[in-house]
Amino acid sequence: xxxxxxxxxxxxxxxxxxxxxxxxxxxxxxxxxxxxxxxxxxxxxxxxxxxxxxxxxxxxxxxxxxxxxxxxxxxxxxxxxxxxxxxxxxxxxxxxxxxxxxxxxxxxxxxxxxxxxxxxxxxxxxxxxxxxxxxxxxxxxxxxxxxxxxxxxxxxxxxxxxxxxxxxxxxxxxxxxxxxxxxxxxxxxxxxxxxxxxxxxxxxxxxxxxxxxxxxxxxxxxx
Amino acid sequence: xxxxxxxxxxxxxxxxxxxxxxxxxxxxxxxxxxxxxxxxxxxxxxxxxxxxxxxxxxxxxxxxxxxxxxxxxxxxxxxxxxxxxxxxxxxxxxxxxxxxxxxxxxxxxxxxxxxxxxxxxxxxxxxxxxxxxxxxxxxxxxxxxxxxxxxxxxxxxxxxxxxxxxxxxxxxxxxxxxxxxxxxxxxxxxxxxxxxxxxxxxxxxxxxxxxxxxxxxxxxxxxxxxxxxxxxxxxxxxxxxxxxxxxxxxxxxxxxxxxxxxxxxxxxxxxxxxxxxxxxxxxxxxxxxxxxxxxxxxxxxxxxxxxxxxxxxxxxxxxxxxxxxxxxxxxxxxxxxxxxxxxxxxxxxxxxxxxxxxxxxxxxxxxxxxxxxxxxxxxxxxxxxxxxxxxxxxxxxxxxxxxxxxxxxxxxxxxxxxxxxxxxxxxxxxxxxxxxxxxxxxxxxxxxxxxxxxxxxxxxxxxxxxxxxxxxxxxxxxxxxxxxxxxxxxxxxxxxxxxxxxxxxxxxxxxxxxxxxxxxxxxxxxxxxxxxxxxxxxxxxxxxxxxxxxxxxxxxxxxxxxxxxxxxxxxxxxxxxxxxxxxxxxxxxxxxxxxxxxxxxxxxxxxxxxxxxxxxxxxxxxxxxxxxxxxxxxxxxxxxxxxxxxxx
Lengths: 223, 648
What we know:
Chain A is of the alpha+beta class. Helices cover 22% and strands 27% of the residues of chain A.
């Protein structure tokens, strides 16, 4: 047989500190088992046990938690958030948030008739980049050498605003919101005017800052 | 207030008793460091659960996204390197702790009656943890995990009777595919941890029922689990956490290049704790007996003996046998593991394969961090289209049987052959070393030591029986000219003129991305020399243009030549491509040529990748190119000579 004595489980569940003290006194009979020293030592041990035990659980959880907060903690630090630089075969060109449209100002009717244009941009999906994807549409109007741009998303509840050439207005078929060609509301249904987008003309090319806004608010709030 | 709330809870759940039961386990003989191992195992498991769940939130199991998501965790996300590193190294710590725990249980006789069942439960836990290691290894979908796991699933396929079907079910198909990852992931993050929790609960329950196996009951006064043993356990766990964190911070988990079934991975090895089995399988006799014998029957038999231990212990000297067996197997594992490490450390081919994997691993991170990010086809396509990665592979395949690249075969491997006495000797190249093609060194060598520069040609079979038309390095016009140049440039007064001449020749490759590094002043002077102006000390030398009348003109493919190699845009990708396609055309070496034409041997894409690598036309890299490991070989260890790699 091995020298190891195997003890079976504790026979009773008497309160521990006492039982230890009691069992200890007759067996060991050591001098340090005085009542005054014991509780104090126990307190230090207990404190350390809780502190260290807590620490080993807390550290990995905290690290993991910060890892989870990655979208907040790492905002805009990844190169993906930057500008598209006109890579080979990719027509998307972006500068300071403005996209260069493939359409020139000469492509718009001189009389200011709205033209629907599908905006393409690079879509970043975590580690992937999908070049030149359709991201939305705008109504473009030429006013002399300037370009007016309206989002096709209705400021009411986000349906797609149409241009009615017969009526000469913008019209949303979902809830009959209507706007004049400058985007001002023609009835009480939409909470605000059509969302105008920043557009510039440089050397005959149209540059557009494509943004989306929250629906159903009287203020224009960026999404 | 809190007190009454706790009482309310206790009244309804009896949680106080449970807590009491958990904390006031008796520890006869006092708290001891030797009792901490079981607790550290529980702790590492909890650590794996915590880090694992966070990794889960960022991991994407499919063949096009697994490596990519792990790359993103590791290289981009906040603290991602630490979280993955902790998971990676805690897994390895768990294996070590498991071994310690098991050996201790056997030596202390804690597996004997009445604890047989708990011992078996422990063995089940061991199997589950090994299963977690195995499934986790594949998930990053990198070359290392991919090829190591291939071995495991092939072993599975060697199972008698149902092997093939078993393998296919586990893989979710005949080959590795999306479903291999989803299956492995479900096992790794769902089924196996679930089983582990269940069996761990049973293990702890039965452990509590029989109590601690006390090593020496008279060691110290009896105590209870709380707080004395808890403190010791916590300190041990803190130690383990510290080690794991240090490894995670300073070493970091490896991420080799993305898995590519088309690219063999010569550096494939299992995780270090399975190396002993890997080495065991490599013994010739074991190999001879078949995969099932070495990988299934022998480990199965060992596990069988382990499993029978509680019963064996009832026999006379049974416990002694068990202890001896444990030490013997441990010793065997240590010896085999050491052998494996030692042999790999001395295996140049293996080292070269590791160097290549590391090179590709660093490179893919550079490519993936470009603003164009990772294409939807996955990161592996980035490597496949990268000249810096594919050029060396193509060179090794197509060029290295004659040429060398800085002394090696392009991939860092020095080619060897059997010598006269059967020993391994370095294979002599039969054509020029191309490691510095088109560089200033290259031009200088051609101008001043032509015969020496092309000396490897003398090893070629055709050179042994030189025909009339063949190039004779000792008598050719160019050799004579080069000797003349060498003589003329010996004068230190002419040193700057040599530089100028070389600069003018380098400028021929006017397309290279390092255009800016060309010194225009030197080029102007070099052109004067080319036009026949005397050198600084007044000496007159033969001009290159006396023979190579295309120097300085635009490179065009023609079907005829002057009898001298066309040097228009010499050193450019355009020139090199045309040359490799048909070096024997009249425009190049004509009848003197001995190099095969590659127009039919390589696709346009392959040729493009090779030439772009050789001329330094690829996305800028900070990864060091291969240097040869054999200092005694010609050109070995020479640094890559593309002075300024071109931006893509």
